[in-house]
Amino acid sequence: MIVARRPAELEPARRAVAIGTFDGVHRGHLRVIEAAMAARLRTTVVTFDPHPRLLLGRPVELLASLERRLELLEAAGVEDVLVLQFDEALLTQPAELFAESVLRAIGTEVVAAGEGFRFGHGRRGDLDLLASLGFDVRRVPLADNVSSSHIRALLHAGDVEHAATLLGRPAEVEGTVITGDQRGEGLGFPTANLAVLPQLLVPGLGIYAGAALGHRAAISIGTNPHFGGTERRVEAFLLDFTGDLYGRRIVVELWERLRDEAAFDSEAELVAAIENDVARTRAAVSPRLR
Description:
6-stranded antiparallel beta barrel, 6-stranded parallel β-sheet
């Protein structure tokens, strides 16, 4: 998959473009991409970074980093992605100019987008405008109850199983492995501690079963109350894994929420609880297999 930052970086081609923010690349987004693919031209995604809401002063917790978004788009079969920097210049650009300088410039013939898609200065551009400019517009109805905002609410509640049905894949948390307190290693359960980008959503506190790097994983999202912690941490114990992960970016799947985090009366009780978490993790089923 080719990733470009400016229209001129893409080779001339007859293109079917799916356009949108695609945060999380969920089932609703995949319907837009599939509509573009159906045109049997070169499937291209036009998307934006950072998220437009941030420039508009409306904070948003992202479901995926740009790096992860691109990985998911490639997995969906997209051939080219144009990532446009969403800045003041793009925000104030007239819709007609955007259509010509971006879409027409890369050879767009077909445009697929959600029915409510808006673009250009004052959000005056819509799919009717693109149709009037000669583009073959494929309007994609919103999938029932599938939206990034709904998925965010489910993840905040720790409902990763319901979120997976909307995402079309397991819920995730991604980050770079950093050095932690190494308490898990002392207990016999060495964990990978993740530094998560501040703009990314972290699911609700709790203990989860999931996977990372091809290994099942028992994941803790919380403050380590047994040790009197106050800072939220994301830690994953990869079952049957040996190796050094420090400095590595990993994507951790969250399959099932096992329990609340808790403080225990003794270290023995804590170890017993972790052993039960590990046993339940071994028995957990990926949402992909349900």
